[in-house]
Design goal:
Length: about 375
C-alpha cells in the first residue's frame, strides 16, 4: 500500500470575540507583525487587531491588500514584510487576502496567521494559494510545505459580515465530501501527492452532514447577525472541516469546473463558493448520480440561498462556445477533474453543466 499523508495547521481558535485574543495566541510566534487586509477590513477591524497585538508586546504594521492574489501583489507584500523585518504575517479578510499573505510568507522564514473575517471559503486552514491574473482569471495552485501556525476565527465577526459570503462558504464546503469521496474511490492522490487517510474522509463527510444538519438555521441566524450554536457548527464546517477535508481528502470535478468557470468574464461577479456549487451539481450529474439525489443536494443549496442554475452565476444564456471554453479549462491535463472514478472529456463536462442547470431550474 502506498503512503498516506494528513497535514493541518498547528492551531485553530474559534469563538465569539476571539479577535481580541489574537495577541495572546500570536505572541509565541514572533515580535514584528504585518497585518494584510483590504481597506474595508482594515477599517472594520484594524484597530482591534493592532490593540490586541500591541497589548501582547508585538510591533504591528497594517498593510493594505490591493484585491487580487496575483504574482505582482504577492511580491509587493513580500517586500513590505522584508522592509519591516517582520517575523509574522497575518492574512485578514476573505480567501484572496489570506492566500496572498500565505504566498508572501513563503519568501520569509516567519509565521503565518489566518484571520478570516468571513466564513466564505476553506482557504484559511490550507497550505495552498490560488493564483490569479491581475484580471481575475485562475492561473494555478501553489502548494507549500508549511501550514498556518494559527487560524483564528471570530464568530461574532462572521455573523455580522454579509450573509452572501457565509452562504458562499457553505457552497465551498458542500463540495468537499463529494470531491474527497470521488478521489478516494478512484485511488487518486491528494495535493500532498499521496493517498488520503480515513481521518480526512471522515472529516470531509462531517463537513457535509454538519451543513445538512445546521445550514438553514445558521444562514437565518447570520441574516440577523446572530451567533447560534448552528452558526458555530457551520463556521467550523466551512473553515476547519472543509479545509482539512479538501486538502487531505482530495479534490475532483467540482473545483476543476469552478476553475473552468472563472475563464468567463460573466461569472466574475459570482463568489468562489457560488461557482463551486454549480461545479458540485455538475460533478454529481457527471458521476451519473440518481435524479432524486441530485435534486436533494440542489434543493439544499437552494434552501440556503446558493445558486443552482447557470443564470444565477452570470451565464444567462451561455453559448455552446462559452461552455466549451469552461469545459476545456476544467479538463486541462493538471486539473483535479481527472481524480474522478470515470474518465472525463470536455464534452462530458459541457453536457453535465447543461444537465445540472436543468435540474436547478426545476426548483424555480
Ligand atoms: N487557498 C485555498 O485553499 C483556497 C480555498 C478556497 C478558496 N480559495 C480562494 O479564495 C478566494 C475567494 O475568497 P472569498 O470568497 O473570501 O472572496 P474574496 O477574498 O475575493 O473577497 C472577500 C470580500 O469580503 C470582504 N469582507 C471580508 N470580511 C468582511 C466583513 N467582516 N464584513 C464585510 N465585508 C468583508 C472583503 O472586503 C472582500 O471584498 C478565491 O481566490 C479562491 O480561489 C483558496
Ligand atoms: Zn474552494
Amino acid at each position: 500500500m502506498t503512503t498516506q499523508i494528513f497535514r493541518s495547521p498547528a492551531g485553530y481558535v474559534q469563538g465569539r470575540n476571539v479577535i481580541d485574543d489574537l495577541g495572546t495566541h500570536a505572541e509565541p510566534l514572533g515580535e514584528t507583525v504585518v497585518v494584510l487586509a483590504d481597506e474595508l477590513v482594515l477599517d472594520l477591524f484594524g484597530d482591534r487587531v493592532r490593540d490586541s497585538l500591541e497589548a501582547a508586546g508585538l510591533e504591528v504594521a497594517l498593510e493594505e491588500f490591493r484585491g487580487e492574489c496575483s504574482e505582482r501583489e504577492i511580491e509587493r507584500v513580500a517586500d513590505v514584510h522584508a522592509d519591516h523585518d517582520a517575523d509574522v504575517i497575518v492574512g485578514m479578510g476573505g480567501g484572496k487576502a489570506i492566500d496572498t499573505a500565505r504566498a508572501a510568507r513563503e519568501h520569509t522564514d516567519g509565521a503565518l496567521v489566518s484571520l478570516p473575517t468571513v466564513a466564505s471559503t476553506d482557504a484559511p486552514t490550507s497550505s495552498v494559494a490560488v493564483i490569479y491574473t491581475e484580471a481575475g482569471e485562475f492561473v494555478e495552485f501553489h502548494v507549500y510545505e508549511r501550514h498556518p501556525e494559527l487560524v483564528l476565527i471570530d464568530t461574532e465577526v462572521i455573523a455580522s459580515a454579509p450573509t452572501r459570503l457565509f452562504r458562499g462558504g457553505i457552497g465551498d464546503a458542500l463540495a468537499t465530501w463529494f470531491e474527497a469521496d470521488a478521489a478516494y474511490r478512484s485511488g487518486a492522490t491528494t495535493i500532498f501527492g499521496t493517498r488520503s487517510t480515513r481521518t480526512a474522509q471522515e472529516i470531509a463527510k462531517l463537513a457535509y452532514t454538519t451543513l445538512r444538519d445546521h445550514g438553514r438555521s445558521a444562514v437565518e441566524a447570520v441574516e440577523r447577525d446572530a451567533v447560534t450554536e448552528s452558526v458555530e457548527a457551520v463556521v467550523e464546517a466551512n473553515t476547519l472541516l472543509s479545509g482539512l477535508g479538501f486538502e487531505s481528502g482530495g479534490l475532483a470535478a467540482a473545483h476543476a469546473i469552478h476553475n473552468g468557470l472563472t475563464q468567463l468574464e460573466a461569472t466574475h461577479e459570482a463568489t468562489h463558493g457560488e461557482k463551486v456549487t454549480i461545479g458540485t451539481l455538475a460533478q454529481l450529474v457527471l458521476e451519473g448520480r440518481e435524479d432524486a439525489f441530485v435534486e436533494d443536494v440542489a434543493g439544499f443549496a437552494n434552501a440556503v440561498g446558493l445558486p443552482t442554475t447557470l443564470a444565477e452565476i452570470g451565464l444567462e444564456d451561455p453559448s455552446t462556445e462559452d461552455l466549451a471554453v469552461v469545459a476545456e479549462a476544467a479538463c486541462a491535463e493538471e486539473e483535479t477533474i481527472h481524480n474522478e472514478p470515470v474518465p472525463v472529456t470536455p464534452d462530458d463536462v459541457r453536457d453535465s453543466l447543461v444537465g445540472a442547470d436543468a435540474i436547478g431550474r426545476r426548483l424555480e
